[in-house]
Amino acid sequence: KKQKNPIPSMSTSLPPPFPTVRGLSSRTPEEKEAARKKDQASHNRLRALQKLPGNEVCADCTAKFPGWAALPHGVFICIDCAQLHRHLGRHISQVKAINTGTYLWYDDEIDAMEVMGNRKANSYFYGDSGIERADKSDSRTNKERHLRMKYETKKWLTTTPSTNTKTKTETSSPKKTLGRISPTQKQQPTTTSTTTKKNDGLIDTSWDSWGDWSAPTTTTTTT
């Protein structure tokens, strides 16, 4: 019986400051147990990051309130774009839900979301090209084409991010320019009192295992 190829470490070919995030197959039982114990704190931290300016709109389109993340890019994305990221392949992008309490999150993954975030990541992916995110109403074909140029061929990627630090409000309008921040400016989440639903059946699953994304909170723990 053939075994599936292990999920690689997600170093990809992205330049600093994009972090290296370890693949799921490299997690030890001790790390998984530690992640389960701090699951509520991890999700509180993610929700605080999600509320920061720029992260409340999908990094790839204009959809608001994104509930997924793409690693190692460190961006918050909507469910539609998360499905498209899956088509890019796990060697390019791996997606993980942040709102369901179903997926285990590890410290290095959350650190990647904190170090990057949508504005900072897009300042590298788009640079001064003038390219904007896709509109949420664009066709699936057009969105996937945009994502492939952005993440697969890295058509606009630059090692020198946009120097335009003037922030414009992220809206659902496709005519608005992306807000950008300095790559040296680390996001500072504020203290949040948000609580998460207790889940004693957390699963440690592949990030693009779409059969699990809507699983109930009573799912059996995967080892």
UniProtKB/TrEMBL annotation:
UniProt lists compositionally biased (Polar residues) regions at 1-13
Low complexity: bias regions: 158-196
The record's Gene Ontology cellular component field reads: cytoplasm
Q: Where is the composition biased (Basic and acidic residues)?
A: 28-42
Kindly indicate whether the keyword GTP-binding belongs to this entry: no
According to the record, the residues making up region (Disordered) are: 1-43, 158-223
Q: Which PROSITE patterns match?
A: ARFGAP
Query: Which chain positions lie within coiled-coil regions?
Result: none
Q: Which organism is it from?
A: Paramoeba aestuarina
> Which molecular function terms from Gene Ontology are attached?
GTPase activator activity; zinc ion binding
Q: Report what the protein is called.
A: Arf-GAP domain-containing protein
Locate the Arf-GAP domain: which residues?
43-167
Q: Which UniProt keywords apply?
A: Metal-binding, Zinc, Zinc-finger
Domain of life (superkingdom): Eukaryota
| UniProt-listed InterPro entries | ARF_GTPase-activating, ARFGAP/RecO, ArfGAP_dom, ArfGAP_dom_sf
